[in-house]
Amino acid sequence: EKLGLNQLRERYLKFFEGKGHLRLPSFPLVPQNDPSLLLINSGMAPLKPYFTGEQHPPRKRITTCQKCIRTPDIENVGKTSRHGTFFEMLGNFSFGDYFKKEAIPWAWEFVTQDLQMPLDKLWITIYQDDEEAFEIWNKDVGVPAEKIVRMGKADNFWEHGTGPCGPCSEIYFDRGPEAGCGSPDCKVGCDCDRYVEFWNNVFTQFNRDEEGNYTRLASPNIDTGMGLERLACIMQGVDNLFEVDTVKNILMHICKTAGVEYKKSEKEDISIRVITDHIRSTTMMVCDGVIPSNEGRGYVLRRLLRRAARHGKLLGIKKPFLHDVAMVVINESKQAYPELEEKAEYIRKVIGIEEEKFDITIDQGLTILNDFIAQAKSGGIDKIEGGIVFKLHDTYGFPLDLTREIAFENGLEVDEEGFKNEMSIQKQKARDALKTKGAAAWGDNIYSKLDKSITTEFVGYRQSECHARIE
Ligand code: ATP
Ligand code: MG
Ligand code: MG
Ligand code: MG
Hints:
alpha/beta; BirA Bifunctional Protein, domain 2; 11 strands; binds magnesium ion; aminoacyl-tRNA deacylase activity
């Protein structure tokens, strides 16, 4: 029998508890005391104060399964087999305690003994100059030299400006030639879906100073990250991370709502996978206290929800449906994230309101856009006018990237300069209006009623959940 996603998460955390790690619950997606980051994008991100020494960790060995959002990966979603804007990252961390000599053999033990992955499918990458890692993989663990691939700084060196940094080593799984691009040059590191990177082990051993000098840290750290969905995809032998057990249940629900069958048409499948991904990320974001708005993380949420709504239209779904699908997400993940169940009603409401709001204007907006596209095509125009893009944004609630996506599907671009111009004209008008009319000029915020009844209060590191609730 195949291990489910929820079982795999538990297997990993238990394994590292067995190696002396303290298990902490996932931190919220909204960073606490970290203005440099919009949303948590790795297991390491919320633990940064422990790495820099600003704070003392409750134990020198910690293991977590962290909720992550990576919106820069949005273009890949539904197209590659391995990217989501939301995913869960398993991680084991050492704060000045164990290092490569332990981390590498443990990773191998988990993958090859605990999970019994076939040895011949596994590949290792290391940073080109990391002889220490090579020796451990080759001599201690017994991986043949030809399966240890050396990579450059771009791929296998983790560094973020100044501060702690270091080489990393990744584990890849070969899904076979059928899964790949078929190019004779296809090898580990190829962008196609054959060799799937699933576990990154970062060896934070240097400090980088202002001048770019690297000095060895007295007590180096370990920071690892393994995508839970990717692991499940490999272990369950499915095509992509949307076909992993719990995620597939969400996908099937969407198919049922739309009355379409999965794997009948590639175009529909992309829409199905986009919705599946975006409803996961948005459900998790709302649960952690993000509310749709026109800026910051609220806008990230809005863009994802509206993109999902539009792909729903493409599948022929006529009425708001995302708030229902959110309930499936909650059901599949509540075991690991009990806060989802506690806030189910609240999540349903927030997503429902946003959907209803967009539902009023989306059809009109699409009609205007499609008319313009038809005209442009017959008139030899290759750009959507800034004025139209702005009107879609301002009157019909189309985020710029949504208009861009639709334009792109039709072989057109959008006039971004023109759009930005219109935006700044509008901002100036709003500023002028504010001067003459006062705060009332800001108009009605659809969430204001809801806002007042929600208390969003973060209670810090020890407790993973935020208390957003409807009284
Ligand atoms: P890729 O090269 O595939 O985009 P990455 O090198 O950006 O991945 P890391 O920053 O090394 O990823 O993150 C550690 C692990 O998290 C990856 O090895 C992978 O298993 C998982 N991961 C990263 N991005 C995603 C994503 N968008 N969706 C699902 N899992 C992901
Ligand atoms: Mg990436
Ligand atoms: Mg990578
Ligand atoms: Mg990586």
